[in-house]
């Protein structure tokens, strides 16, 4: 399944390269707001903190709105930049929660874990270890937060809960997806984060969640096998239609698609 996921995502990214690049430009412009603007402001700490928080919040809302729009690409459709504009209002709850989680992670790493380690006793080390292992679960689980917000039903709290359920039920898959995202991030650095970039990674995560949810659709339609020991999901069967819709291409098809 991982191989097909990469293939489908590459095809979708290639077909929408310029749109993804434009969205990445928008994200980079948004990111420059919290990174650069505070240095141009008067030396008032509270003002700089407020501007930085607002800028980071906007970046997360931007990614959430992108996820709501990119969902159409994953579903073999298309989207316009007008879709992105209309999705900003709907993206505010998810972007806000993601922003809060981001700052919680920063606080855990910067303050909480060092505080308990510096206590210098076994209780402090035990609490620091617990917080550390909890922190390790956050990235592979909540990497799907934007995709879950775009695809799953329920409020934002229920969607976060489903992200953790998916992680505990598909730990190896989630870790593999996170590692691929890291590779995409490294590749993005070679293209000045224009391709695949942050938005391309958001698309990949949406593709990953979309395909993984096929497992739960199959389990729901086959309730008699849910508690079967040694259950094996028939991925070849589940991905058959996806493979047909994605198709295959040659290098010539990639470079000169109009000659098909």
In brief:
The protein is mainly α and 260 residues long.
Indicate the overall shape. globular
Number of domains: 1
The overall pLDDT, averaged over residues, is 90
What is the distance, rounded to the nearest whole angstrom, between the alpha carbons of the first and last residues? 28 Å
Number of strands: 0
Going by helix content, strand content and strand pairing, the class is: mainly alpha
Number of helical stretches of at least 4 residues: 12
Q: What percentage of amino acids are in beta strands? A: under 5%
* Residue runs with pLDDT of under 50 for 5 or more positions: none
Radius of gyration: 21 Å
How helix-rich are the residues, as a percent range? Answer: over 70%
H/E order of the elements?
HHHHHHHHHHHH
> Mind describing the biggest β-sheet?
none
Describe what you observe in this structure.
The chain is mostly helical and 260 residues long. It has one domain (2-259). It contains twelve helices and no strands. Helix 8 packs antiparallel against helix 9 (197-221).
What's the layout of helices and strands?
Layout: H1 2-15, H2 17-40, H3 45-74, H4 81-117, H5 122-142, H6 145-151, H7 156-169, H8 171-190, H9 197-221, H10 235-238, H11 240-246, H12 251-255
List keywords for this structure.
single chain; 12 helices; 260 residues; mainly alpha; globular
């Amino acid at each position: 399944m991982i191989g097909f996921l990469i293939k489908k995502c590459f095809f979708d990214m290639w077909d929408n390269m310029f749109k993804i690049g434009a969205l990445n430009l928008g994200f980079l412009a948004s990111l420059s707001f919290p990174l650069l603007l505070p240095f141009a402001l008067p030396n008032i700490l509270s003002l700089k903190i407020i501007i930085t928080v607002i800028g980071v919040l906007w970046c997360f809302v931007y990614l959430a709105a992108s996820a709501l729009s990119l969902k159409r690409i994953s579903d073999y459709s298309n989207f316009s930049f007008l879709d992105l504009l209309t999705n900003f209002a709907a993206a505010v709850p998810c972007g806000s929660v993601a922003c809060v989680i981001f700052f919680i992670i920063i606080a855990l790493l910067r303050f909480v874990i060092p505080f308990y380690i510096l206590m210098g006793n076994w209780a402090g080390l035990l609490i620091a270890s617990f917080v550390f292992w909890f922190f390790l679960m956050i990235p592979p689980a909540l990497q799907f937060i934007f995709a879950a917000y775009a695809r799953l039903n329920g409020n934002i709290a229920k969607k976060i809960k489903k992200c953790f359920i998916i992680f505990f039920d598909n730990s190896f898959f989630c870790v593999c997806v996170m590692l691929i995202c890291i590779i995409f991030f490294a590749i993005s650095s070679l293209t000045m984060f224009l391709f695949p970039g942050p938005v391309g990674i958001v698309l990949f995560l949406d593709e990953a969640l979309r395909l993984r949810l096929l497992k739960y659709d199959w389990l729901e339609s086959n309730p008699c096998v849910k508690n079967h020991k040694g259950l094996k999901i028939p991925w070849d069967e589940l991905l058959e239609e996806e493979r047909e819709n994605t198709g295959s291409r040659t290098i010539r098809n990639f470079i000169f698609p109009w000659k098909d």
